[in-house]
């Protein structure tokens, strides 16, 4: 059997090592290139000790990888760095799965606004498909450049989208209180991830302005705009892509006076309204648990029960290999090390609010696992190939 | 100097050991009795190894403690058990500081509803003062029976009360997403607190129906009813105490149809509306971090900024020995082992929501420390006596 | 392809869940029975939440499993309970892989001495093969009853055996300072594994008398008795199996006077001498790291270097699929979740001591993984089938 | 009451913050200077968030502190940096308590050998007193420069010294297997202390050559040389200080041939022989648990029991405010956050070995607490002033 030749560009980070962890046992691909500019010539296992005697690839430079006839490359690079390499590999006609934030947003302007960087490859942005197979399977399969979702967005978008499509969520009512393990902050030592600052500790960070906020809003807005439910009769007007002030961002420069009322009105014309997103740092390695609050739309007010919500999610995801709608709230260890998304939905009659709880492994479904899921689609392989596993619990 | 003679009824749990940790260095009291029914005759340090050679008290029975002429007793007992002992010590004319949930709620009926138990000492309920010195100092000083707040309520009520008194929070908009260390679940081994189920893990629990919900709602409602701010002109109608269906609990049996709208209207007459409270279990020993979301009331809509909120809190608590209003969100280690409450307040213009973050040590300010604060008041001692300490960080 | 029908007797513990974690993806077997007496009729995933929607087997009773025509069963039961079931399945002609301690020791008398229990199936003891494939491959392949090694013994025996076979270790000089994660203590909640007693904590336990001591001594003695090295010319006299006082256990009742000298002499006639074994409890889920000290035998005194030791180990294990001899000391995460054994050997000229460091995952190579390795041998399958994986790091 | 004016030179590390944690509540001193060169002008609480609103000292430069009339300074600086400042403060006639490794060893030559640095202040080395009050109380009280012990040495020297003084330990038989929390590695973020590399993990490091080895050996040798016991009649010949090859270090360049035998002989003339010291990194913040193995000397061989050892230790330390000899092995949480040393001693008849287990908090008794104990002595204050506390457990 012919195997596809894969390259991993950027091997020293966690997304790089996690790609190797899965791909080395993939029956239809071989890893032909693993690159690192800072450690060229060393072994991959010199960087990641757990691979010693298991995967001792020699690290090459990205420049050398560009000269190989690879079938697909993963870019496991920091945002800002990734876009340049994406262009180079695409110009060599090598399909790219990018794990950075460089191609996730709707326009170069929005990118610049939230990432504080000029986008040097807007054509890439234009052509990139959002790498969330459950919502975008067909486009991924035919894409040359796939942009893998952020970890927080993955855990937020999957539970919310089916409900937004059904029109059961009131505009402006979504609050995502997310808690992440430290690997989300990367492999590089920093004060933030110093053991003594994390162990037996817990904190909120990035209040109000985490970059994943805009990614969540844009993708949820798309979902809401594709409402299919009979519950909703609201006409949908998509905000214009590329306009930074679209969606709710106008508020940044808005005056306070009367703001609340104006907003409440604005949301009525089909937008989901601004999403409140608050990340927290857990003393765990992997995993994001998102507790999501939302209020019922007027159309749905009378129908709300736990069963109603569970049914919508179950129906939406019944055939999905990696999504599980549960009877009880999931814990992080229920998905640790796997590509699974576990979702629990409930409705609190007393407060008139939905509560959704989702759990993903940020390094698998939140990045490298989902990236391989996309790769499988792009290469015409069964989507779940080499991604089946059970959580490491305990 | 004459020292007060103190008894600790129930010494095998964490509130018991934490009381000893602080009281043994208190300059104005002596610990004259520590009781345990199951381990009578053993040493306190046989139960709590960290006290070996430090506090080797002999454990006696509660019956023996009742015969001693004590100046005050702490009840560090499970709810349900505590009320009987409270009655006995009070009948002996010994003032009681109770750390259980038995005397926290407004009526025996509410107690039975949430604790699923008959209250056998409703006179105690009637006379008990809520042991939160910052909000109830004068009454505590003169009380015979003080009921110490729950750990979650402490972390929620203190940040919210000054804002509710000023009338700046919209009814029904309060969401408390709280994360607690495992000591809140007590000293007894259980599946919930089994190391392998907690370590490197995280989960939500008690969605919709945790007992602390009603305690939070009742106390916040009291605060709201004492609005002093010129911002609010709404007449305040306190729901009738003792009526289970008061506040928002009616919803339990309400129909769904049109529920949202009715609620929104109901909240206008001075009630705070139902509070959404979701606890989570952190892989840490101590500490509760509460992330609290709320929307501005109409009256306050135009004034909202981070400074506005910080000023209200600072003004309210400027003289408090144990409350700190911070410039950045606190972490649990910033208060670990102390009686401090750290609060951060922010306002998100984009979403039109307040975000409050509070951190307390559930075993200190959330129980035993606050109990000693009450004891100091009851005994006429300076309130902060023996409670000064800096967090154990790292 | 015909698949082998496998039963797992005792599914509520960690060895049970770990067997399922691996076996569900095994290409040549199917899991036909999972039993639990206490939770018969429930789903396996009701007991182990991480299997929800992944492996929802219905739990049956062991009695029902006995009536099925299974090709092999694993006994994932407590010691004492296991021996009875072993007899029953063997009488039905079903091969057994036992994960308890019931069949590990050399005789019923030794068993009774260390496990404080009468052995009810001594014929089983007689026929059981020790399930450590690297040292006993051929016998396992032909066995009807395989007794899987204890977790601590696995991490100690594998690094020491090649050195003992070469005769390079001085009698009586072996000290094993082992540190284990909490899953070694099992799934049942207890004070020992209560989160607050383990988290941010560390302790020694079982000093001098842990049951694994005798297992380690017996198996190391066997290895030493098979010395193949030209380095050693000492005649080997195996202590008589079944005699509790054999090996070094005589000391239990010996007098102290002159004891040290006597011992030092005794060791010369080919026994390894008593092994010092001290376990500790780590605040981690999985993994045993053993730091082993030993002095060179007289014969080896002149040859000792790090290279000398590394070469012996490398030579012994060069073809082993699951053993890695490293250039640096391993950490637990380098093997977390895998069937690997990582070993580092060093020699300290200054102190004239060998230092060996080994790392295993107690639930995989230390129990269920090694058990499956044995199953593969017994069923004539490639030994490493379905056991390849890379550590979950981070 | 007149208070002593104290300076803390170097405030950004953990020893600095820990000094403030204790000194701010000390009744007889005031903190008059806290210095940092990198963050001069900022608040101490900007660096250490847990002090916000608790100890908001302004950071000054060391140069400014030199101009103040301080009664004593602590140097909480890295080794190599400390010696220069020690000289400067001593020249200003200000007594110094140094927490670095700069003044712990016996000579500049030994220092250079193990710290790979030239010692620029050998006069300091000469005059420095080793700051372990239990063994050196009188000299500390009269010292101008006190050198605080390393954290590992503190946990090793205190349990071993009384036994060495009694002559009950065989030369060359001491093995210290020590396990430390991460704060020992300091406040600075590094790969070693990156959360994902420590959490749920464990490893050995510094095998054979950790700097604390020589400190332990030198101090233990001193203890052995002051043997007071009637058990020992061996003449004691102290190795010459300042000679790097003294003690056992000769072995570094020795040939292997016959080495073991030579060593065994050498130890007989009163030296303790080389000490095996192996540190490990625990996934905990604070604490060092040392498991120490040693063999009885010939003189003591007949006397060894647990009681015999416990009695020696109890007798030696019965009046010590911070040492506790326990009935069971201590855990790290039994001393977390305190200045206590907990020691357990046992004897294994079967193997003829002593096992000692000690537990200290590396940041308190292992550094800042012990430093304050020294300060109290130097200032003529009761030694335990402001250092009483009970462990933070849980």
Could you describe the largest sheet of chain A, including whether it forms a barrel?
7 strands, mixed
Note the run of SSEs of chain A as H and E: EHEHHEHEHHEHEHEHEHHEEHEEEH
Tell me roughly what share of residues is in helical segments of chain A. Answer: 25-40%
What quaternary form is this?
Answer: homotetramer
Question: What is the residue-averaged pLDDT of chain A?
Answer: 91
Short characterization:
Chain A is 30% helix and 16% strand.
Any overview of this molecule?
4 copies of one chain form a homotetramer. Chain A is an alpha/beta fold and 394 residues long. Chain A contains 13 helices and 13 strands. The first copy, chain A, is globular, with a radius of gyration of 21 Å. Chain A binds chain D through residues 14, 182-183, 187, 189-191, 193-200, 283-285, and chain D through 14, 182-183, 187, 189-191, 193-200, 283-285.
């Amino acid at each position: 059997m012919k195997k596809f030749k894969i390259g991993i560009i950027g091997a020293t980070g966690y997304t790089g090592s996690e790609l190797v962890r899965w791909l080395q046992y993939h029956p239809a691909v071989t890893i032909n290139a693993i690159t690192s500019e800072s450690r060229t010539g060393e072994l991959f296992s010199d960087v990641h000790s757990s691979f010693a005697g298991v995967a001792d690839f020699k690290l090459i430079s990205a420049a050398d990888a560009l000269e190989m006839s690879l079938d697909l490359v993963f870019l496991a690079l920091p945002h800002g760095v990734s876009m340049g390499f994406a262009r180079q590999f695409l110009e060599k006609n090598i399909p790219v799965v990018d794990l950075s934030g460089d191609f996730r947003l709707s326009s170069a302007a929005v990118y610049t606004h939230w990432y504080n960087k000029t986008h040097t490859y807007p054509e890439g942005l234009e052509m990139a498909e959002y790498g969330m197979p459950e919502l975008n399977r067909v486009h991924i399969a035919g894409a040359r450049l796939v942009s893998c979702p952020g970890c927080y967005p993955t855990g937020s978008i999957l539970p919310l989208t089916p409900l937004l499509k059904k029109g059961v969520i009131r505009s402006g009512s979504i609050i995502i209180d997310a808690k992440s393990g430290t690997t989300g902050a990367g492999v590089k030592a920093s004060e933030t991830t110093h053991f003594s600052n994390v162990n037996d500790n817990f904190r909120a960070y990035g209040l109000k302005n985490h970059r994943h906020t805009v990614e969540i809003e844009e993708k949820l807005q798309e979902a809401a705009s594709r409402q299919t439910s009979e519950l909703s009769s609201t006409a949908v007007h998509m905000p214009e892509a590329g306009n930074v002030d679209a969606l709710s961002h106008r508020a940044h420069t808005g005056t306070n006076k009367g703001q609340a009322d104006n907003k409440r009105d604005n949301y009525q014309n089909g937008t989901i309204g601004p999403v409140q997103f608050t990340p927290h740092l857990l003393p765990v390695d992997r995993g994001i648990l998102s507790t999501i609050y939302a209020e019922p739309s007027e159309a749905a007010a009378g129908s709300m029960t736990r069963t109603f919500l569970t049914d919508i999610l179950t129906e939406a995801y019944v055939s999905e290999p990696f999504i599980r709608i549960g009877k009880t709230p999931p814990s992080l260890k229920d998905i640790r090390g796997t590509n699974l998304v576990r979702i629990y939905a409930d409705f609190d009659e007393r407060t008139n609010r939905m509560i959704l709880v989702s759990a993903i492994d940020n390094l698998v479904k939140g990045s490298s696992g989902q990236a391989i899921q996309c790769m499988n689609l792009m290469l015409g392989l069964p989507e779940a190939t080499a991604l089946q596993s059970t959580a490491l619990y305990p």
